[in-house]
Amino acid sequence: MEDASIIELFWERNQQAIEETDKKYGKLCFSVANNLLNNFHDSQECVSDTYLAVWNKIPPTRPNHYPAFLCRISKNLALKKIEYHRANKRDSNLTLSLDELGDCVSGVNIDAQLSYKQLSVAISTFLYSQKERDRVIFIRRYWFCDDISYIAKRMGLTENNVTLILFRMRQSLRKYLTKEGFDI
Amino acid sequence: MTKEDLFKAVDGVDLKLIDSAVNYKPHQKIKLAIVGTAAAVLLVVFGTALVTGENINNLLNLTRTTTGQQISNEAETTMGVTYTEQSWDEKNITAKFPTVFYAGKEYSTLSYAEDKKTTKKIGNILSEEVAYGTRPSTEEESIKISVYSLENVAPEFMIAVKFEGHDGLYAYANGSFKVSSFGEFLSSTDFVNIVSFGDFSFGTGEIEHNKGELLGDKATLLSFFKDDMPWCEDDTAFAEALIEIRVDAPEIGISNRVFDVFANGIVQTNLFNHVPYTFKMSEDDFKRFKNYISSLKEKITESEINNSFESSEITTQVETTVPLIVWE
Questions:
Q1: What is the sign, positive or negative, of the torsion defined by CA atoms of B106, B107, B113, B117?
Q2: pLDDT on residue B137
Q3: Chain A residues lying within 8 Å of B258, measured CB to CB
Q4: Chain A residues with CB inside 8 Å of B99's CB?
Q5: Which of A179, B23, B63, B262 qualifies as a FRET site for A104, CA 20 to 30 Å off?
Q6: What separation, in Å, do the N-terminal and C-terminal C-alpha atoms of chain B show?
Q7: Which residue in the set A105, A148, A159 is minimally distant from B3, CB to CB?
Q8: Which residue numbers in chain B have pLDDT < 70?
Q9: Is this model's pTM higher than 0.95 or not?
Q10: Which of B213, B235, B174 is nearest to B1 (CA)?
Q11: What is the Cα–Cα distance from A152 to A134, expressed in whole angstroms?
Q12: What chain A residue is nearest to B9 in terms of C-alpha separation?
């Protein structure tokens, strides 16, 4: 079923909307949550919570990018769960992605005045200036927290190619953010 | 800014970017074999038509149709619409089993999808194990493997794997293997013997092709990096590169990696691993290295001047003869 039709079902308050979403995007939502939580039950719970959240958001929302909309909700729920569990339960994928991003920054706490939104816009602009393949790799690694071997298989590249692309992109991102006046 | 700040900011990127990452299909170029087959089919069509005395117009019409279909298939394929993942049977052995376990540690192939066997001298057999792979249908596959050491390489870092029923051995590295110093890195990896230096570039400048000999021999270059140079975890690794050298390790099937020295004295290579090995030079050593790099740059500039001088002589000769030919 087309995304627009699924969204219509939500607007009609038809519960088939959830079934169709699960059929089409259930695995995707699960993988987003599981990449962060590394726990089957917690991830499944996140997926169910995602559907509930979507049910509550549509209407009035009418998302233009439905899969991205779902992924963002699943990810936020998973991050909240991590926050909730907190103690010693951080998954290696998240830790590894975070550690790699550490390459781009100084480690000094962010200026309270700096808006994350500005930084997100700058990162989006930077990503749009990159080759499509490279920006997909970047998003898969640092947004979805996919592991390198999965990205390599998905993109038809070797793991080392993926690593090298990410390495170069982190370097370029650091330079770009510095140039844009961010105190990194 | 901390990495957590950056992570949060990445989380807020434009939804279109996330959407495209969900829906992205890698481009796949049409295979030469398909073009070859199509060409062969065309030849047969022409041949048959000629033998049976078909009208030449019919023949040309048929050719147009066939070519048209071929073009549309190609376009469809290059747009990524018909992308299909390589089937299990098409995969080579290291792509089927990209990771193996030995002594409780996970080792990853160094030649994923490339089928590059190691030619490095093999040491003792260490263990008999079973490796597991996953078919696209999520069926699990297993194969018996024999694990060997590689000469002068710490098995905690890298092993050679022989798959049952397959010839040759493949190098696999432990991605989480860490060292405390450059000396330990050299001795654990047999770096000096297996690495070869190739093209290089200064900073983000142009790559100096085929000038690897100007770097001097490996020993000269590596003499700037002391054994006690400590492992460095750190975020400062991504300053401007002072020099970036392309490195290969053909014996273990690795090519096209980099060995970098950064303007803040960080030395780094991704030769073996997804997470680069990173070390910090002492201030004195870094000063000496910078001088060495400056002298290298001078040498290259001199050779470029000499080359341009030689070519300008040739140009002058040409210029004196060409007008005569033109104006006569």
A1: negative
A2: 58
A3: 164
A4: 149
A5: B23
A6: 72
A7: A105
A8: 27-86, 111-114, 134-139, 203-212, 233-239, 256, 273-275, 303-328
A9: no
A10: B235
A11: 12
A12: A120
